[in-house]
Amino acid sequence: MLQLPDNFSDWFAWHWFQPATLLAYDWARPFFLYAIIPVAIFLLVWSLVKLKVRRKTDVAFFESKPIRQWTSYLRFLPDILFGISLVLIFLALARPQKTTEQVEQYAEGIDIMLILDTSGSMELKDFKPNRLEAAKKVAENFINGRFQDRIGLVVFAGDAYSLVPLTTDYDLLSANLKSVKLGMIPNDGTAIGSALAVAINRMRDSNAKSKIAILISDGENTAGNLDPSIAAKMASAFGMKLYTIGVGAEGTVPYGTDVFGNTTYVETRLDETNLREIAEIGNGYFYRAENQNALQEIFRTINKLEKVAIKETRYRDTREFYQVYLRFAIVFFLMWLFTKNSFLTNALED
After folding, report:
1. What sequence ranges are listed for the domain VWFA (predicted)?
2. Among 97, 127, 150, 214, which residue is least crowded by beta carbons within 10 Å?
């Protein structure tokens, strides 16, 4: 980041004239930059005119041709120094600046528990590549769209476990979500009531403005010791809102391949009644997703329903750098005054 120098050597460093430095500035008065070219043209024309009309002293030369010495070019030095000082003054008048802006965003985040079914039926391939992987992908997109919300993850099959507690570490959450796989819970089945109980236990002490749980499952409650409706009432008592998503098509769906590579099919059905009841008791909504696009749209809808206002504060820090070029201009102007009163100047011109 550009900043004003702290010591003498930095004030007069040549990096102030590098193209990268000049292009990095914000110019408060850029019209002074545009004035440099016409002024330079004027000075050049004026110098040529002065060269033609200046007063000359008659001098008698020998017949031999005089030899031009390199020192004869020093007579142009005062004009060069004056031109450089003038350009530097215009640079200073253009007021080079560098503005940095810091944005602080904050919001009253909400607490969200994702409850994901990992039972054997989530291996069905009416979603690509299967129901579980499709649900994981959509859930990850949902996580990436949140801001300052604490999100946790519960996985269940025949048993339920809290895989990630409520956290704002979305990288940690995404890494654990990717690690979810079929068969990670040895006891197969669908313990919806137990999964809700684990989520409630994680959120019951939360002081968040809003607490929601999103249950993703493709089957009816077939395991666990807690009835899902009772768990939903407990969730409601703790101020939690329940969204339930039933994934999967009904009827014959592809399951895998046999030993000959032929696709095998199974009959499947979704217990909508149970999931609807849970959502109704939990003051939320039930959604049905028969394909991946529908599942994606459901999460978009929930994302909109549970959005909180994001506030932001902007801090702008503007630093002026005209002092650097003004100091250079003063140095070159003093050099011009010195050479103007030296042997380098034609005394008859003044």
Report:
1. 111-302
2. 97
β-pair type (160-167, 240-247): unpaired
**Cα atoms in the Cβ-side hemisphere of radius 13 Å centred on 334:** 5
Strand order, beta sheet including 286-289? 160-167, 150-156, 111-117, 211-217, 240-247, 286-289
The C-alpha atoms of residue 245 and residue 117 are separated, in whole angstroms, by 11
The phi, psi pair for 224, rounded to 5°, reads 85, 165
Task: Using DSSP bridges, classify how beta strands 26-27 and 96-106 pair: parallel, antiparallel or unpaired.
Answer: antiparallel
Task: Say whether pLDDT at 2 is over 70.
Answer: no
| DSSP character string of 11-69 | HT-GGGGSHHHHHTPEESSTHHHHTHHHHHHHHHHHHHHHHHHS--------SSPPPPP
- What are the structure tokens assigned to 149, written together? 């919300």
Q: Over the stretch 250-304, which tens digit does the pLDDT of each residue have?
A: 777 777 666 666 777 677 777 788 899 999 999 999 999 988 888 999 998 988 8
Separation between Cα atoms, residue 12 and residue 88, nearest integer Å: 13
Q: What amino acid occupies position 27?
A: W
Preceding peptide of 129 cis, ω within 30°: yes
CATH number 3.40.50.410 given to 108-309: yes
CB neighbourhood size of 331 (10 A): 15
Phi, psi of 84 (to 5 degrees): -65, -45
